Structures are given as structure tokens and as C-alpha cells.
Amino acid sequence: MSQFNDYDDEPEYWVDGQYLVVQNREELPRRCIHTNVKVGAAEMETKTLYYVPMIAQMILPVILIPLMRKPVEVTYGISKEVRSRKFTWNVVFGIMLALAVVLIVLGAALEAPAIIIGFPILLFTGLIGLVVTNRSIGVYNCKKGINGQNEFWLSGIHKDFLNSVEDELDEYE
Question: Which uninterrupted H or E stretch holds 14?
Fold first, then answer.
């Protein structure tokens, strides 16, 4: 058994440069993927991510893309600190969006172009902020593995976590 996780069997994931390669229904070590601090079972999240080939994204109509996607379910840890920071930024950007709505209504009622000018700035900043704050790990690539199962290259995982996974895997060799 490894000092890094609670698993008895060798994991079926590995590091490929800046990516973590996993198979479907993989459970990662109980550490935060952003800070590499240990997390409890309650801080583990199971998410279904999707890989869509880039060529499909470029040439297929949006309505057909769900037919091309390949799902991967992965369980990973997010620390309380990261969740708290994410919540705080969501509140800040949510307030910006609310202010944008107030500005457009107020600007229209008062016919004040100066107030209306602030609307797109707050709206754009708030929307971009929410998207950036809520982005998580993504699927960069998908290939058939040696055992015939799909293998998925995950991006957005901190280098410290990747380094600790490599250390953990070295223990099994």
C-alpha cells in the first residue's frame, strides 16, 4: 500500500508531461488536484468529463457534437481552501453581473449613456470571470489503450499533484 493513497492495487493512471492519463471510472489519490494537500473522502468529487475530437468541434453542427463525445468518469479531490476561494470569486462575479443589470435598467430609465457604458464592461468581466473561476479539469485527448479501453489525457491539474503521482507510481515499480 502506498504512502500517498489508500489503494491496494496498482493504479491505472500515469503522467504524460503536463497531462494525467486515466481510464474510465478512475479514482485519483486523495489529494487536491490544485494544491496537492491531502483531502478527506467528503472532499472527493466524481465528475463525468467528455472528450470531443477537435475536428468534430470545428465541422459538425452543435446539435451533432453530443453524438461524437466520449465520456470519462473520474473521482478527484478538491480542498476546502480551493472550494472557498472558488465560492468567493463566484460571489464577486455574480455581484458584477447583478450590477450590470441594474446599470442597464437605471441607464435606460434615466436615459444616461454614461451609465449604459458601464453595462457591457461589467457584463463581460462578470461572465468571463465566472467561466474562468469555474473551469476545472478538461479532457485533452483520447486514445485506445493496450487493453482496448479508452485512455483520456486530462489537463488543468497542478504540477505538484502530477509530480506526487509520479512519485507514487515509482513505488509500484
Answer: strand 14-16
Handedness of CA 100, 102, 108, 114 (dihedral sign): negative
- pLDDT (0 to 100) of residue 5: 45
Nearest to 41 by CA among 76, 81, 2, 4: 76
Please check whether residue 156 is in contact with residue 22, taking contact to mean a CB–CB distance below 8 angstroms: no
Element spanning 71, H or E: strand 70-77
Q: Are 168 and 160 in contact (CB under 8 A)?
A: no
Q: What percent of the chain has pLDDT over 70?
A: 91
**β-pair type (19-23, 44-51):** unpaired
* Pairing between β-strand 26-32 and β-strand 44-51 as defined by DSSP bridges: unpaired
Is residue 173 very low, low, confident or very high in pLDDT (cuts 50, 70, 90)? low
- Relative to beta strand 26-32, strand 70-77 is parallel
Q: Helical H runs in the chain? A: 54-59, 65-68, 80-110, 113-134, 159-172
Beta pairing partners, 16:
19
- Predicted structure pTM score: 0.71
